[in-house]
Structures are given as structure tokens and as C-alpha cells.
Design goal:
The complex is a heterodimer.
Chain A (H helix, E strand, L loop, with lengths): L1 H21 L3 H21 L3 H26 L18 H22 L5 H8 L9 H9 L3 H23 L3
Helix pairs in contact in A: 1-2, 2-3
Chain B lengths: L3 H18 L3 H19 L5 H25 L6 E2 L4 E2 L2 H23 L1 H6 L3 H20 L3 H19 L5 H32 L7 H9 L2 H18 L9 H7 L2 H26 L3 E4 L2 E4 H20 L5 H22 L2 H28 L13 H4 L1 H15 L5 H20 L2 H21 L1 H8 L14 H19 L1 H9 L3
Antiparallel strand pairs in B: 1-2, 3-4
Helix pairs in contact in B: 2-3, 2-6, 3-4, 3-6, 4-6, 4-12, 4-15, 6-7, 6-12, 7-8, 7-12, 8-9, 8-10, 8-11, 10-12, 11-14, 12-14, 12-15, 13-14, 13-19, 14-15, 14-18, 14-19, 15-17, 15-18, 15-21, 17-19, 17-20, 17-21, 18-19, 18-21, 21-22
The chains are: A mainly alpha, B mainly alpha.
């Protein structure tokens, strides 16, 4: 049953991501992105990362994507309801691009296949101790965020401030 | 809710974190100054550059003093900080000084820059971002954890994207957006590689034993690919192939002071992390079927490609900053050579090369910026100015010779050291690829001679077009800085031992 759900959500993610590449209509792409995000949240939930699944929905679906949709709807005005005309730049190196993409995909697929994660010592030991699925991950996340990952936590604060300063700076200066 | 056991463990961990705080005072000061300058700008708008730069200088000085205290108080036991996130080493302390020097040079060069003054960019943000970048670099030099490496690299990158746009014109936005796109791509690739590495060994800490054993047990090809992907962000920062594409455009479009900084400090930090990374991965033999591949083979191939590409593209450049961009790519290749050698001499030669590299680069960009008063960075328009301003011309000559790697400059010594380290590694391993790299490196030094000496050639051997309509103003401060930057380049050629003796202590 779980396996079936897993494949269903995988299918959802891959298909919506692929359609996103094919569609010319930016609004459709945004909605397809919504499906991808939701599918990823479901995958998180399936592996027992409850907190991660909820934050994926709250931040990506609830925050980022809604902002994106607002941005598109407020700025994008297709002429006569039609998707806008062809992009201004011509698409070049189509075949080479496709070839590199597929080649890279094959390489990565082979790497993951060869890596054989299920037999890794640390994963086997974690599985045997039943640490993975039974408990909620939130207490551990909280404790680790304030101990082992305290420094990264603080550095992210600086990182976000830098991004904020940069965004306001670039937005406020008209060239 | 928590058991007693867990509570005592947590309090133990918190105590360790509190103890670690003592060793990050320099970084705390940098972070504080970053916030302070932003606040200052909110309260008093439009402070002149001189005052803000003075305040920044104060912060840098204080940081330098604290870093010096670290150097004095350092004990090998005090290394492991924040439960294994950072590791303090003498080498990290030494390069923290170098980063501070780079920031100070950038602040001065930006104040000197004419174009920078005319367009009146927001000074406070410029200095604050420089300080944030300094913080990222300091942390990067100490990071031994994949998460920390990624985060501090992102702090450096995000600040860079913004600083690259500081001319606020179309060209600058173009360069900056290109930088951002390539940067985002390479850090995405890097994260992918890191997550694979985590999957192999179940720990993020690269100095951990579990990390090495986990990688050694995993499939050879998988680790090789994952390791290469995880290097992507670092290769991007040092502008090595195949992540070099941003370099020429960003160098051309960004303020010279910023470019000089990009060419030095992030590159050093990137190479330092790469060094640590390849120390770990170098311990492992990878088997692809029946062929044994070593980590250094991969690096050697990258170095060969980078050196050849950088040098031969630089040959056709007519614009000084673009030429220096391709030279930076070529130097990235040379910086990979000690990593390929991966021996004790390699470590020392790498530190020597990096130290000299900072001086050469700031010297070169300072001179280019001075010349930009009379020329739009075109090498052709340097005609004859060397005879009119002999000291400037001489400075150019010394810096360009040092960049090529010829005596009597420390640039030669640096190249000599890295090539001897590589030769030593070849002797002990008999790996043909190292020999190829050695030959390619030497031949390319000859190629480099042609494009580097083009500048002194135009300066001295062409007549000044009469009458020289724009006037070149060189202040006493410029001379002082140039002498400070260029004098060690010659001095360390004759007294190599002085610097080497210090670098040998940085174990």
C-alpha cells in the first residue's frame, strides 16, 4: 500500500515537472509547480519526516507559490487571453542540450543504482533500531537545532539578511 | 518529556558550545560590524565614504588583533568547535589574516576608484556586504562540515552577486545576473553531490572516520561522481573549468576593486576547502571495473583543461580586465597543481602561491584602475605612458613578470615550488597523468609570457601619442600602496626562506 502511494506521488512529481517544461503558458507552469511541491511534501510524509512535510506545504505551497501566482497575475497580461507569443530568443543547441541532459540523467541514475543505499551500514543500523518511523521528528529537530546545528542556524540568519539587503538595494536603484 | 539522561547530555553539549564561543571572537566582530554599519546608515544617511571606510577599517583592525590572539593562544586541542562544525588550524588563522588584508585593500581601492566615486553607489551597503563576505570567508576557512561549507559558501556567493552589480548599469546587471545564474546552478549541483556523499556515509563531517570508511566501502564510480558534483561550488568560486563561464563578463562589468577581491579572497577560501576535501578523498582508491582511478587524476584533468583554456583564451584579449579574467582562470589551474601533488611540499607551495597571488593580483588591479583614468581598460591605449610615469610602468613590469612566473619575482618561486611538488609526486607514484600536467604547466608559462608582456610592451616600446590629452594623476598614497604590494614580490624571491619558514609552521 505504502509502495503504491510512493509510486503514485513519484508519478505525479515527474509528470507535472515534465509538463512544466513543455507548456508555454506561465500560469499553467505555476499550477504544475504546485502539484510538484505537494507531491514532494507527500514523499516527505511517507518517509516519516513529518515536520519537513508540513513546512514544505506551508513555505513552498503556501508562501512561495502564492507569491509567485500573485506576481504573474498582477504583471502578466496575455493579449486576448492567448498565451503570449513565442519567446524573443531563439532556442539553440536543442539536440546537444537534450543529449547532454539525457546523458547526465543516465549517469546519475547509474550512480544511484550502484550506490545501493539500502545496504549502507548506517542505514541498516538505524532501521534495526526502529528509530525511523515510530517517533515524531520534532523534539529531535528542536534539540539539534539548538545544539549541533546552532552555528548553521545563526549563519542562515546572516545569509538571509544579506539577501534582504541585496534585494532592496537592487530594487531601489534604477539604472 | 525528556529523560534525565538526555537533559544532562544536552547541557553538556551547550557547555561545549559556550566554550567554543571564545574561539570565534573575530567572526563575531565581523558579524557585529556588518550589522553596525547597516544600522549606522539607517540613522545617518549619506555619510561620506571616508568616514564609513574608517569605521570599517577599525573593525578590520580589531578583528586582526583578535585573530592574532588566536594565533598566540592556539593549542592543537582547541581545534574542534561547535560540536564538530568548525576546526581551527594554524593555516586557517594565517589565511584569516590574508582575508582581512584583501578586504582592507578592496576598501582602499574602492575609495580611490574614480568611476566608483562618480556614480555614488550606496557606500554603507558596499562596506557591509564586504564585511559579510569576510565573515563567510573566515568560516569557510575553518569549516569541516558539509553543511557549514555550503552555508558559508552561500554567504560569500550572495554578497558577491550583489557586489558585482555595483555600477548599477545595464552591463553590470547583465554580468551580475549571469553570475547569479551560474552560481545558483553550481551550488545546486554541489548540494546534490553533498547529499549523495551523506547517503554513502551517514555523516556530514569530513574529518570524521565514518566519512572516510563510508566512502571507501561505497562503489568507486558513485563516489567519484558524487565527489565531483560536491566540488562544483568550490570550482565555481575559483573559476576552474567547467564552472568558469561567468568570469570574463563579471570581471569586465564589475567595479575594479570588487573584481580584485573576487580574484583573490574567495579563490583562496575555495582552494583551502578543496585541499581538505581532496585530503580525505585522496585516501581512497576508486575502481572503475578493473581500472584504478585516484582522486588526484580527476583533479589533474581539471587542472590541465583549466590551464590550457585560460591561457589560450587570454591570448586574444585586447581589454586589460578581460585579459586578467582569463589569467585568473589559468591561475586557478595552477592552484590545482599542489592539490594534485598532495604532499607536504605541495601544501607549503600552495600556501606560498596563494600569498604571492594576493599581492600580484591587487598590484595588477590597482595599476589597471590607475590607468583607467586615461584609457577605457584597453591595453592599446597604454601606449607610451610607461615612459611618462616610470614608476607606474615599472610596477606593471614587475607585476606582469610575477604573474607570468619569471625571475626575479616571487611569482617565479611560487611556480618553481608547485612544479617541484608535482615532480616529487610524479617520482613517487609514476603516474603518467602527472607528467602530462607538469609539461602542460611549463609550456603554458611560455604562452603566458606573450599576453602578460603585451602590457609592458605597449607601455614602454610605443611612443606616447602626442599630445597626451588626459592627465594621469597619481597620488603619494598610490605609490605607497604599490610599493607595499610590489616590494614583497621581489623581496621574497631573494629571501624565500623567510616566508617559507613561517608557512612551514602552519601544520
Amino acid at each position: 500500500m505504502v509502495l503504491l502511494l510512493f509510486y503514485f506521488f513519484c508519478f505525479l512529481i515527474v509528470v507535472s515537472a515534465f509538463l512544466m517544461l513543455l507548456t508555454r503558458h506561465i500560469l499553467y507552469a505555476a499550477f504544475l509547480l504546485l502539484l510538484t511541491f505537494l507531491g514532494i511534501a507527500a514523499l516527505y510524509a511517507l518517509v516519516g519526516a513529518d515536520f519537513l512535510a508540513v513546512s514544505q506545504v506551508v513555505i513552498y505551497v503556501g508562501g512561495v507559490l502564492v507569491l509567485l501566482l500573485f506576481g504573474i497575475m498582477l504583471t502578466h497580461q496575455p493579449v486576448g487571453g492567448q498565451p503570449s507569443a513565442a519567446p524573443q530568443t531563439e532556442s539553440r543547441n536543442l539536440w546537444w542540450g537534450a543529449l547532454t541532459g539525457i546523458g547526465f540523467f543516465a549517469l546519475l541514475a547509474q550512480v544511484i543504482y550502484k550506490a545501493d543505499f539500502t545496504s549502507k551500514a548506517w542505514i541498516v543500523s538505524a532501521e534495526s533500531q526502529k528509530r525511523l518511523l515510530n517517533n515524531s521528528s520534532i523534539p529531535h529537530l528542536g534539540a539539534n537545532l539548538m545544539t549541533h546545528y546552532l552555528l548553521p542556524f545563526e549563519i542562515i540568519a546572516i545569509l538571509l539578511l544579506v539577501a534582504l539587503v541585496g534585494a532592496t538595494l537592487l530594487a531601489s536603484r534604477k539604472s | 518529556m525528556f529523560s534525565k539522561n538526555l537533559v544532562s547530555e544536552l547541557s553538556n553539549q551547550l557547555n561545549q558550545i559556550l566554550d567554543s564561543l571564545v574561539w570565534v571572537y573575530p567572526e563575531l566582530v565581523l558579524a557585529g560590524w556588518f550589522l553596525g554599519i547597516l544600522l549606522l546608515d539607517l540613522v545617518w544617511r549619506n555619510l561620506p565614504y571616508r568616514i564609513l571606510a574608517g569605521i570599517t577599517g577599525l573593525g578590520l583592525g580589531l578583528t586582526a588583533v583578535l585573530v592574532y590572539r588566536q594565533f598566540v593562544d592556539f593549542q592543537p586541542l582547541s581545534g574542534n568547535l561547535f560540536l564538530g562544525m568548525l576546526q581551527l588550524s594554524p593555516a586557517a588563522i594565517y589565511f584569516k589574516f590574508i582575508f582581512l588584508l584583501c578586504i582592507a585593500c578592496t576598501v582602499l581601492l574602492a575609495g580611490r576608484s574614480r568611476l566608483f566615486r562618480r556614480t555614488k553607489p550606496p557606500y554603507a551597503e558596499f562596506l557591509a556586504l564586504l564585511l559579510a563576505m569576510g565573515l563567510g570567508l573566515h568560516l569557510l576557512a575553518m569549516s569541516v562540515n558539509l553543511l557549514m561549507i555550503y552555508l558559508s559558501l552561500e554567504v560569500v556567493s550572495l554578497s558577491s552577486y550583489i557586489l558585482a552589480a555595483f555600477h548599477f548599469n545595464q552591463k553590470a546587471s547583465e554580468g551580475s545576473i549571469k553570475y547569479l545564474l551560474f552560481g545558483a546552478f553550481s551550488s545546486g549541483v554541489m548540494l546534490y553531490g553533498m547529499s549523495l556523499l551523506y547517503g554513502f556515509c551517514g555523516t556530514l563531517q569530513i574529518t570524521d572516520n565514518q566519512f572516510v570508511t563510508g566512502l571507501a566501502q561505497a562503489d568507486g564510480m558513485a563516489v567519484l561522481v558524487a565527489g565531483f558534483l560536491a566540488m562544483a561550488g568550490l570550482l565555481f568560486k575559483i573559476s576552474a573549468l567547467p564552472f568558469h563561464l561567468w568570469t570574463p563578463d563579471v570581471y569586465q562589468a564589475s567595479p575594479t576593486a570588487v573584481v580584485a577581491f573576487f580574484a583573490t579572497a574567495p579563490k583562496i577560501a575555495g582552494v583551502l576547502v578543496l585541499w581538505q576535501f581532496s585530503q580525505v578523498l585522496g585516501k581512497i582508491d576508486f575502481w572503475l571495473g578493473n581500472v584504478k582511478v585516484e582522486w588526484t587524476d580527476l583533479l589533474a584533468v581539471l587542472a590541465i583543461l583549466t590551464i590550457i583554456f585560460g591561457n589560450f583564451s587570454a591570448l586574444w584579449q585586447t581589454q586589460a580586465k578581460r585579459m586578467l579574467a582569463y589569467s585568473a582562470i589559468a591561475h586557478a589551474g595552477f592552484l590545482l597543481i599542489p592539490l594534485v601533488a598532495a604532499n607536504e611540499l605541495g601544501r607549503q607551495s600552495l600556501f606560498f602561491y596563494l600569498t604571492v597571488y594576493v599581492l600580484m593580483n591587487f598590484g595588477a588591479f590597482w595599476l589597471v584602475e590607475l590607468m583607467s583614468q586615461v584609457a577605457d581598460y584597453q591595453i592599446k591605449s597604454y601606449e607610451g605612458w610607461g615612459n611618462a610615469y616610470p614608476i607606474l610602468g615599472l610596477g606593471f613590469l614587475v607585476v606582469m613578470i610575477a604573474l607570468t612566473g619569471l625571475p626575479p619575482t616571487a611569482g617565479f618561486t611560487a611556480k618553481l615550488l608547485i612544479f617541484s611538488a608535482l615532480w616529487e609526486a610524479y617520482q613517487s607514484s609514476q603516474n603518467q597523468l602527472l607528467l602530462v600536467l607538469w609539461v602542460v604547466g611549463l609550456l603554458n608559462t611560455v604562452v603566458a609570457l606573450y599576453y602578460y608582456l603585451k602590457i609592458p610592451f605597449y607601455l614602454f616600446l610605443r611612443p606616447l601619442p602626442t599630445p597626451p590629452n588626459p592627465i594621469l594623476t597619481v597620488r603619494k598614497l598610490d605609490y605607497a600602496w604599490l610599493i607595499l604590494l610590489i616590494f614583497p614580490l621581489i623581496f621574497w624571491f631573494f629571501k624565500t626562506d623567510w616566508l617559507m619558514a613561517m608557512l612551514k609552521m602552519l601544520v
